[in-house]
Amino acid sequence: MRRRAVLAAGVGGVAAAALGGLPALAGPAGSKGRTIALVPLDDRPVNVYCSEMTAASAGVRLELPPRELLGRFFTPGDGAGIARWLGSVGQVDSYVISVSMLAYGGLIASRTATATMAEALANVEAIRTLRRARPDATIEVHDTIQRLALTSTGTPLDAYISLLVSWAKLYDQVVNLGQEELRGQLDETRAKIPDEIVEDYLAARARNHQVNRLMVEWVADGTITHLVLSEDDTAPVGLARAERVELEALAAQLGVTDRVEIFPGADEVNALLVARVIAAGLNPTYRLEYAGVSGEDWTAQLEGIPFAENIRRHVKSVGGRVVDGSADIVLAVNTPSAVAANRGADLDAFVARIGALLAAGTQVIVVDPLIVNKGDHALVSRMEAGLDLAALLSYSGWNTGGNALGLALGHGTARWAYLRNSGSGFGVPQMSAPGQAHAEYLLYRFVKDDPWKNVVQTDAYAHARAQGWDPLRLTDQQKLYFDGWISDRLGPVTSQYFADHFAGHKIVLGRRGAKTFTATLDRLDSVHVELPWDRLFEVTLEPHLRLS
Fold it and tell me: If we measure between CA atoms, which residue out of 400, 410, 406, 365 comes closest to residue 383?
């Protein structure tokens, strides 16, 4: 994947002419010259590009390990090399560190027992070394509670994925929750899975859980400033639930529940913690608006707690709190309707409320968690028709509910923090690059989560299967073919989406007193499209805009 460098080059008009030799990412006092060192969960766009753009929309730069250390797909990253990099990176203000990458080589690698406990512990020791070298630094850490399912590998192992998930749920219900009436199902399911698969699965879980516990202990002793333990694709019951309960008890026992958050999610946490660093000390408040039922009464797929509780935990992780009355930001959340027949009317009313909030000058983040792995086109199409999309702080409908929530919350909070501090004596030229990055990321999110997921990706899966190819395990030749096939389709889709919903619209660059500085979204200069991994599940999409 091509690393995106967010520069002011291409900003049109007087602003571009005035940029001169100033740093492209100079910004208000709260962010000028700031750099955050990030060890990402893996090298996919959701963990690298989305984090970079979240930071760039607030005028902040990310420093990442060399690309060759991050691995790719089934090739693990070099945890030992990243540990050395952490010790060498300089001139940074804060650190955001994924333990799954540092300890095991990434999210997929963390789901197998390949990395030994000794190797994992040696790699994460870099965090303690960093603390000794930087006693006053902010060190934000993210670790994952292993999901129930294995990763699809395109091998005979895939035949046991659903059986292993069923067994992990039944084991929790029978052994941990005492539901003895299910023991026959537990034994029957276990008998269908080879011993070596269960042993590797349990070995990885035991290793990861020990490292999870260690991270909580390091919060207690001051090594780690703040910790997120995210539940990767979880469920109300299962081995992950039992691990979460134990970790919650440990955090309570050590008195660190104010500095440890545990919630469903994974891929969004890099961007969320980057936003936490950017908004530190601002304590943003959020009010909730639901499209349908309350999040208290709805649990998203692949999650184990009500969505309202997941919102509260994500908001706490970004440094804010949910309130009932006046708030800095409104979180507009797409939940299912209480009565299916009323869905259209509910969405119409929801979009109308968002429009009224925007017209009143309210900052709005739209979270679209309803459908796993894609935006809700019924909502997005209404937003396209009834809203100025460029006026939103952020939007996301990507993957799980927690993923969508955290990506939108991270981007929107970082941008809100930038705008809040934008009156600190800096002119329009210094505001232009963050504004451009913000608009590019908004365009990315809408195209990626709706037309890519609902149309182009669906067509790509069908095209691959028609040729007898596995969409989740492409050969080198097939990947090269689809790089071109998808670029030929998604590039024009992105150009048309910009023309239809962004071109000519104004974005707010910053505010000083009663004066608001804006720029017009002039044109789309280019779009970079390719597959980051040898599968059709995600895509690299990097639009480059011009402001005037």
Answer: 365
The one-character DSSP state at 265 is: -
Crossing angle (nearest 10°) for helices 239-253 and 195-220 = 20
Pair of tokens at residue 439? 């608009």
Q: Give the mean model confidence (pLDDT) for residues 280-286.
A: 97
Which tokens in the block code for residue 30?
A: 């709260």
User: Which residue in 384, 452, 437, 511 sits closest to 274, CA to CA?
Assistant: 437
Q: Are 430 and 510 in contact (CB under 8 A)?
A: no
Using DSSP's 3-state secondary structure scheme, residue 40 falls into coil
- Tell me what pLDDT residue 152 has: 78
- Report pTM: 0.91
Q: Which residue has the tokens 């965090």?
A: 127
SS3 470: coil
Q: Which helix (H) or strand (E) holds 459?
A: helix 457-466
The tens digit of pLDDT for each residue in 347-367 reads 999 999 999 999 999 999 999
Please check whether residue 528 is in contact with residue 542, taking contact to mean a CB–CB distance below 8 angstroms: yes
Q: In DSSP terms, which residues pair with 144 in a beta bridge?
A: 230
CB 37 within 8 Å of CB 89: yes
Residue 321 identity: R
